[in-house]
Amino acid sequence: DSEATSLPSSMAYASLSNDSRNYTMQEFALHYFRKPSTLLDQRGSSAQGKVITSLVQYTKVRGQSPIQESLIRLSDEDMSKQAVAGFQALMQFMGDKSKPRGKEEMDLLYDLLKLCSKEDLRDEMYCQVIKQVTGHPQPEHCARGWSFLSLLSGFFPPSTTLMPYVTKFLQDSGPSQELARTSQEHLQRTVKYGGRQQLPPMAEMKAFLKGHAVRLLVVHLPGGVNYRTNGHMFTVAGEVLEELCGQMGIRDPQEVEEFALFLIKGEGELVRPLWPHEYLNRVMVHQDVSLHSRRLGWETPLHFNHPTYINTHYGQVLRDYLQGKLMASAQAEHQLARLAALQHLVRARKSPPSGQDLLAYIPKPLQWQVNMATIESLMGQELRQLQGHSPQEAQISFIEATSQLPLFGYTVYVVLRVSKLVLPGPALLGLNRRHLILMDPSSQKLCCSIALKDLQRLRLLSPLEEEGPPGLELNYGLADSPQTIWLELPQAQELQNTIIFLLDDSISSTWPGLN
């Protein structure tokens, strides 16, 4: 047991299958529960075993206080009193004891979870509910106890000392109790992601008590594709992202990490990537928030062996291209004509493109810079050469052709002003998992490059002018030669959130630069 307390929760959980000990709750009670006086009066291992077993089995209501002190030896007397109150609330919630006047199920459940939020009482509450569902004579009341245990295991983990005993209890109970299997799944998720920790809103708890814990999640993908899946109280962003990538035929964990789930509020007032361990029900508490997904990293070679994969990537690349974010050149007429022809083939239209179609195929910043008659002529030649291409083949060819453009593989932002640069117009900022670059679209020259690992601090700036865009200040470089640059752009907060997300997790968890 002393070894178990030094293990992280995940290791304590995983080590159970390799350990020869039984990890029964009776064993835990023998080591950590208060010793009842009846145990001292018993002689012989059989008689003592019965007393120990009774400590971890259902206790009937006897008088006002079924227990007089905490089950586990607690040094703090106040904590022991709270444990007694917790046992009362548990019995009331399960229906073994009448509820106090004015107290509803919701109140009791919140009281129990508040007690469990105190780390010193967490093991005690695990032991109490396990005790009360073990050998309970009334199935309906017992099911309510299991329901609470499934909730507890999703919010808070037990200590590393108790973890293997709880795990073994759930494994042994699983074959005959569905809620035991649910609790085990929740506990595995808690070990992996840390548990929800914060208490849920009232509406979510009401849905839980009514058995309506499942909600529809809609993830908006580039290209107008929506992915629908079911979420519950303890669904995390990483699980949805992994499931979504699986639907695109992505199995490589490294490639999955190159995608992100974004939370968007309203019309873009808030845009931020979600960490894989974030519980969706904790962040999706308002009606005007939505989930979106896009690729942030492009290190893994692209593979075009799944239609959803092709559609999604085409949608994301096409959007960036038409917004002028990939930095195509007005002088590259043959390239523009070929990309226009491929877009037309994707639409599977048999008739030649109209003038309006042709204009829509050209990046917006270039629409008034190119000779449309020349583009139309070159596009006709390209369509004749590409005859026989299916829409899917055209999508693949479009992605491969745009991959040669300067800002392919970057998340691109339009920056209105930069402190260190004097440019004729807005600059384009490209961001990937390694660095941030600034480019002049008019000359297509690289103006600045900053490695993300060199960033020391990010700070949001208020608009310089009334109703103007906010700014973002970046401090970077070595301690003996620090440098500062500020950027003015409408998506300053989104850029800050995305940079923090792209920084290595071990750095960002202790990074002082988020202001």
Keywords:
single chain; 515 residues; alpha+beta; five-stranded mixed beta sheet; four-stranded antiparallel beta sheet; 21 helices; actin binding; Myosin XVB; actin-binding
Question: Can you describe what's shown?
Answer:
- The chain is of the alpha+beta class and 515 residues long.
- Helices cover 43% and strands 15% of the residues.
- The chain has a five-stranded mixed beta sheet with strand order 2-1-5-3-4. A four-stranded antiparallel beta sheet has the order 6-8-9-10, with no helix packed on it.
- A hairpin with a 4-residue loop joins strand 9 (435-440) and strand 10.
- Helix 5 runs parallel beside helix 7 (119-133).
- The chain is elongated and about 95 Å long.
- The two termini are 42 Å apart.
- Pfam families: FERM_M, MyTH4.
- This is Myosin XVB.
- Residues 215-515 form the FERM domain.
- Keywords: Actin-binding, Cytoplasm, Repeat.
Distance between the termini: 42 Å
What proportion strand? 5-15%
Residues in helix, %: 40-55%
Shape descriptor reads: elongated
Strand order of the largest sheet: 2-1-5-3-4
Q: What is the number of helices?
A: 21
- Kindly state the mean pLDDT as a whole number? 89
Find the count of extended strands (DSSP E, 2+ residues): 13
Integer-rounded radius of gyration: 30 Å
Low-confidence stretches: 1-7, 505-515
Largest sheet: 5 strands, mixed
- The secondary structure category is alpha+beta
Pfam families: FERM_M, MyTH4
Domain MyTH4: 62-209
InterPro entries: Band_41_domain (IPR019749), FERM_2 (IPR035963), FERM_central (IPR019748), FERM_domain (IPR000299), MyTH4_dom (IPR000857), MyTH4_dom_sf (IPR038185), Unconventional_Myosin_ATPase (IPR051567)
Protein name: Myosin XVB
